[in-house]
Design goal:
The chain is α/β, with parallel strands linked by helices. Helix content is 38%, strand content 20%. A 6-stranded parallel sheet has the order 1-4-3-2-5-6, sandwiched between helices. A 3-stranded antiparallel sheet has the order 7-8-9, with helices on one face. The protein binds adenosine monophosphate.
Length: 286
């Protein structure tokens, strides 16, 4: 496994990789969710590139950035164990040298939900992902369902800027109690950790109500909201039923749908979702 820390060394190493090439962008502090993406890439592509960069510009809250868990040695060992061929782990200066000025605005798809909760977040994501795709030149990029809106923002970016990459969306990996794995979960106390399971319990209630023919978006969203609000340690951000691809509001809950929830527990921002609709996980294209 080659570890490239500069654009020049990445370029040299990338030139030696046989295609097709899969890329898995990460901010490190790897858990089983990241590993699922890496394994999906390893199964499908001839060469696998992982990126490791905690992108300052997508954090609207500087204390969240400062508290973001970092363990490069463990991350490199995990990449190696997953059969990654090349890791790009640049410094901040390498990604944002003096004079850097371009910011990509993904438009309405990034304005709402997480975009409203975290102003500027998706502009930071779109900008760094465009740079990482240009630098690593992948055939496919592997993204996690857990960050559903992020998958839609990146799909919009790929379409709008004609980036030559296919997106593969990998289902959310969960702990035994249903909590979606997240690098931020390590910051939860045992009590907060228990409270955090309300997001998934609420989503499960909504998904089973949908199975029982509940088609009111407001009624489905309320099931999630009420479940989260029942936890004194959790503060609801939003619970919404949207069109899964455009993220627009819907009058009737017909697939493709996403039921998305965000909450804060002990100052830690958590998100989760369920997607209702056939074949959406296979291909993230619009
Ligand atoms: P991050 O390091 O948090 O930026 O995440 C890197 C990639 O891993 C993103 O595509 C995430 O959506 C994905 N990811 C994070 N958590 C999970 C999870 N629990 N299951 C599946 N994918 C995940």
């Amino acid at each position: 496994m080659i570890v490239a820390r500069t654009r020049t060394s990445l370029h040299e190493a990338r030139a030696t990789l046989p295609g097709p090439v899969g890329v898995v962008p990460t901010m490190g502090a790897l858990h089983e969710g990241h590993l699922a993406l890496l394994r999906a890439a390893r199964r499908r592509d001839r060469s696998v590139v992982a990126t490791l960069f905690v992108n300052r510009t997508q954090f609207n809250d500087s204390s969240d950035y400062a508290a973001y868990p970092r363990d490069e040695a463990a991350d490199l060992a995990a990449f190696q164990a997953c059969g990654v061929d090349l890791v790009f782990a640049p410094s901040i200066e390498e990604m944002y040298p003096d004079g850097f000025g371009t910011r990509i605005d993904p438009g309405p798809i990034g304005a709402d939900l997480e975009g409203a909760r975290r102003p500027g977040h998706f502009s930071g994501v779109a900008t760094v992902v465009a740079k990482l795709f240009n630098l690593t030149r992948p055939t496919r990029a592997y993204l996690g369902q857990k960050d559903w809106q992020q998958t839609r923002v990146i799909a919009r970016l790929v379409e709008d800027l004609n980036l030559p990459v296919k997106l593969v969306i990998v289902p959310t990996v969960r702990a035994h109690d249903g909590l979606a794995l997240s690098s931020r979960n390590v910051r939860l106390s045992p009590d907060q950790r228990r409270a955090a399971t309300a997001l998934w319990r609420g989503l499960e209630l909504a998904a089973s109500a949908w199975d029982d023919d509940e088609r009111s978006p407001a009624a489905l969203a309320d099931l999630v909201r009420v479940t989260v609000q029942a936890q004194p340690l959790a503060t609801i951000g939003y619970a919404e039923v949207r069109h899964a691809l455009t993220l627009e509001q819907v009058a009737v809950a017909d697939p493709p749908l996403v039921i998305a929830v965000a909450a804060e527990v002990g100052g830690v921002g958590l998100i989760d979702n369920v997607v209702i609709g056939e074949g959406l996980m296979e291909d993230g294209s619009l």
